[in-house]
Amino acid sequence: MSNIRSTGKKSSNTLVRDLVNVGIFSALYVVLGFMSSSIGYIPALIVFSTASIALVTSVPMFLFYSKIERPILCCMLFCGIFGGAMLVMGQSVIMFAISLAVGLLSGTILKIIGKNFAGLYMANIVLSLMSSSMMLPLWLYTEEYLEYTRGMCDEGYVAKLAELSNSIWPLVGIYTFGILGAVIGGLVARRIMKKHFERIGLAR
């Protein structure tokens, strides 16, 4: 009986820690993501803004992944919070759906591969698809997205977005640079956090 109680208490404690980590790191991701994506307000740098997000957030995401005990639940909650924040800011429901899908996929990767470097690295690359999707509605619902942006930005910026929407290649570039940023950011995270990973057994 005491073993059952001890196991239940331990499970409850790890769940609380997981939820706390989700709250802390999702808030950190939203703040860092929006700060680093601000380079996208310079029209010439719109396509590169996703690389900036992935680079800046890779270290905290590696730390988040290494701390959680329930990867699928935590990743879905984490990404759901981000998607919810996008909904509050006026984004379409498709962004929320993509966020949940990314959370499920990244959590499943961690569950299957494990919390080693390969697992954290792949989960971080998948996560880049979420931030890269923030501008997807520009191509799916062009007029609605331009109207949404017009309420926050000047006409010159809106005109640049309209120009980008005429071709699929800027969208390809957005996703490509997002993935590239996560690839480089993951290597930087491994180097910066090498001692931490060695201490908790994730140096592989």
Written account of the structure:
There is one protein chain. This protein has helices at residues 2-36, 49-67, 71-88, 93-113, 117-132, 137-140, 142-150, 155-164, 169-192, 194-199. It has 204 residues and is mostly helical. Helix 1 (2-36) packs antiparallel against helix 2 (49-67), helix 1 (2-36) packs parallel to helix 3 and helix 2 crosses helix 9 (169-192). The chain is globular. The chain starts with a helix and ends in a 5-residue tail after the last helix.
Task: Reconstruct the topology from this structure.
Elements: H1 2-36, H2 49-67, H3 71-88, H4 93-113, H5 117-132, H6 137-140, H7 142-150, H8 155-164, H9 169-192, H10 194-199
Helix pairs in contact: 1-2, 1-3, 2-5, 2-9, 3-4, 4-5, 5-9, 7-8
Report a brief summary of the structure.
With 204 residues, the chain is mainly alpha-helical.
Residue share in helices?
A: over 70%
Total E-strand runs:
0
- Average the pLDDT over all residues and give the rounded result: 86
Report the β-strand fraction as a percent range. under 5%
The number of helical elements comes to 10
Q: What structural class results from the helix and strand content? A: mainly alpha
Shape: globular
Taking the sheet with the most strands, its summary is:
none
User: Taking Cα atoms only, what radius of gyration do you get, to the nearest Å?
Assistant: 18 Å
- Gap from first CA to last CA: 38 Å
